[in-house]
Design a protein that fits this description.
about 160 residues; alpha+beta; five-stranded antiparallel sheet; 2 helices; about 15% helix
């Protein structure tokens, strides 16, 4: 229970401190913990044309932060703290997403740029309390890098 309660309490305090407390009572300016935002005004774009089944490595949190604005977003898509456990991991592309349904309005949205869904990369509720939705996380291609396919060894040769 403490594993979920402590991050929840810290994140709640940070949210309150941003709006209701003087700056000297804020921790790191009231930023979410762990911090995933940066200071960009215009966020960069990188197109890899990733396809389902390709192997990718999720960049480190520090590399991803360099592509985010003050709200922790890259061209409108947020990099949530729930995505940080996947940083640095090797994963497989499950699918590309260019349309989705907004949960609040129930409207179909055409996304201005594609998002990537990675196999097994789910929101686990580690930082947002005891959320059990286990929803897909959406990734920008700039947060990923293509991994080279494993080199096949010629027949008869043994790997060292």
């Amino acid at each position: 229970m403490l594993r979920y309660l402590v991050p929840f309490l810290i994140d709640t305090y940070q949210g309150i401190s941003r709006h209701k407390l003087p700056p000297w009572l804020r921790i790191r300016g009231g930023a979410a913990v762990p911090a995933v935002h940066d200071r960009l005004i215009k966020t960069p774009v990188k197109r890899l044309d990733l396809q389902p089944g390709e192997q990718v490595r999720v960049r480190t949190r520090q590399e991803i932060r360099q592509s985010l604005n003050r709200e922790g977003r890259n061209r409108g898509l947020s990099f949530d703290v729930e995505m940080t456990p996947y940083c640095g991991r090797s994963m497989r592309v499950q699918r590309r997403v260019n349309r989705l349904i907004d949960d609040w309005t129930r409207q179909m949205l055409d996304l201005p740029s594609d998002c990537i869904v990675l196999e097994g990369a789910l929101c686990m509720g580690l930082y947002h309390g005891l959320c059990t939705r286990r929803t897909d996380t959406y990734w920008r291609e700039i947060w990923l890098e293509r991994e080279a396919p494993p080199q096949a060894t010629p027949k008869g040769e043994v790997e060292a």
